[in-house]
Amino acid sequence: MLYISGGPSPRTPRAFRVPRSRSARRIAALLAVPLLAASAVACGGEDGSSDAKGSPPAVSGSWGKKPKIEKGEGDPPSELKTKVLKRGDGQKVQKGDAVSAHYVGQLWNGKEFDSSWKRKTPATFQIGTGKVIKGWDEALVGKNTGSRVEIVAPPDKGYGKKGQPPTIPGNSTLVFVVDLEKIAPSKIDGKPVDKPQNPQLPKVSTKVEKNKAPSVQMPKGKDSAPDQLLSETVVQGDGKKKVGANSTILTHFTAKAWKGGKQLDDTWAQNGAPQEIPVAQIPGWKEGLKGAQAGSRVVISVPQDEFPKEQRKQFKDGVVFSVDVLDVK
């Protein structure tokens, strides 16, 4: 898997995921984010550094399909190497952009440790702001969407002396091939709904700010969610795509426990990038988001009974979500 600060890749947040196996039932980090340990940003080069060692391994395969990467030959390079295998003609990635991409990563010896193709969904991550490893921040800023980029990241541009055991040993040189698909929208573009919000639900701000979650004001005197699942659109989008039972959405969301308003999750605070999540994978979302248009903000109150039995004790007072629907697939 890809990791950032030891967490898994960006899929359905484990705390809210419908259990499928014993391992999936474990309550781990509330939100997972892409590989790539947080670190400071520097400048990156392409193809050429003064380091003569360790030419990037050969890569075969067409853009959009999982590539085959040969193992590295000889000693790995001590400097970052970047090679554009296919140059796209889309938007240029700028510092702070949320980028949707497929990628595969392996060690210099050829051992694969992660692949978004295996998960059958691209990853979305913020570039150029220290949310990912230095090798990605430096290599991908300035590249066009539609490009396939090979990155060889020495330890100081990856995970350093500690690595990410057990998949990435300390002092590992990492090889990635990244297909830059698109620059994802970073905020919704809908309009506030011109009517009072449901008093049974927490009051959620309709102000839309980049890189900041809306405020969620819990109702006074209420320490548990209403018995029935409730949802309300507070910002109405006008996107042509609507959420269905089998939809996957690109979303930013925040989640709080009803009792005391304890913060449970916040994608804005995690890695700054929206996440692609199947609505069927989080309790209450399939029903609460049904028919929501891209560009909307929806408040969903999920009572304890909506959660699987294994999770009801953890969420005994219910959960409120504020969900920004950036795109619908």
What would you say this structure looks like, in words?
With 329 residues, the protein is mainly β. The protein has 2 domains: 34-183, Chitinase A, domain 3 (Roll), CATH 3.10.50; 191-328, Roll (Chitinase A, domain 3), CATH 3.10.50.40. Helices cover 8% and strands 28% of the residues. The strands form 4 sheets. Strands 9, 12, 13, 14, 15, 16 and 17 form a 7-stranded antiparallel beta sheet that branches. Strands 3, 4, 5, 6, 7 and 8 form a 6-stranded antiparallel beta sheet that branches. A hairpin with a 7-residue loop joins β1 (59-60) and β2 (68-69). It starts with 21 loop residues before the first helix and ends with a strand.
